[in-house]
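Exercise 7.
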Amino acid sequence: MAAARHRCLHIIRLQENEFLLQGGDPEWLKGLHHIPQKLQHLNDLNKKLAHRPWLVTKDDMQKLLRGEDNWSLSELVHAIVLLSHFHAICSFAYGCGVNPEVDCDGGFTLSAINDSTEAKDNNCQNSADHDNLEVENPEGGVEELMQKMKRLEESEVEEHTQEEMVERFEKVEKQSVELLPHSEEHVNHLKADVSKYIGDPDFSYEDFAKRGSISTIPTFRVQDYSWEDHGYSLVNRLYSDIGSLLDDKFRVAQDLTYNTMGMQRNVDTSSLRRGIWNYIHCMFGIRHDDYDYGEVNQLLERSLKAYIKTATCFPERTTKKHFDGFWRGFKHSEKVHVNVMILEARMQAELLYALRAVMKYMT
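Solution. The predicted structure, written as tokens, is:
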């Protein structure tokens, strides 16, 4: 159910095989209408968490926790963790170009090109793609980014009012609306064996801050409900020890660094990592009160922002061209780290909304 929201065939096939290996009922793999009603009830929560987690409310929890075929609190929290995990894993799989194995339906194969004409045409196309990337991504590379980071580090800390901090966040938020997601030309057609796991297939991501309109849903302020102070303890109480495991994952993703940028060594990348993490949260309307969002526009080039938005919100549209199009001069491992942060920050964002709804239901 979770992986199907993003049409991630690779994850779906892996889970189908594992399900059967663990003795699961093959009838369940025929689609949503063949699974127990209790699991079917998760469909609405699943689609909201995957695409617009800010729509999740205590009423969603109440529907699942009461009535026939209801869930217990601990069961529901377990389900929420699994759903958010596999949504985020889809972002990582697409972002890193993970494809189904060669023996799977739609599996990846590398075929040799024997026809010299076809090879020539292919080379021309690759050259054209490269030229397009150069035009679309005029931003500087490692050296320019390091200079920006140095200027930020050396500049005096300015005191900003709360209103100014909110304005800076809203500016970044509105700019993200202008970043149109990459086209759907490379998205595989929705196959019947994937659509059977999807309810309401047209439901998808919409920008939290819509251009020219006032949102009726307030910004999620981490100061009011944070993972460290609220989510961690709640999930640990209802799903024993998972809070500690998740917390370790989040910390590793945020703190991981080799202190390098491209070929440069002994570089403090903390400001860049924090900017990326907070920008991912911004996609879901989450604001960190103690962060100056003015740094986002200084540290994150437009092509990186576009990549983050696509991999986070529309992962099925991510292609190698998009992966190659940001951070010229950086190592592939550093780009993969961006995808690790997308995975963990996205999962944390979904959990924050869901766990806050659970807390409101409990109180």
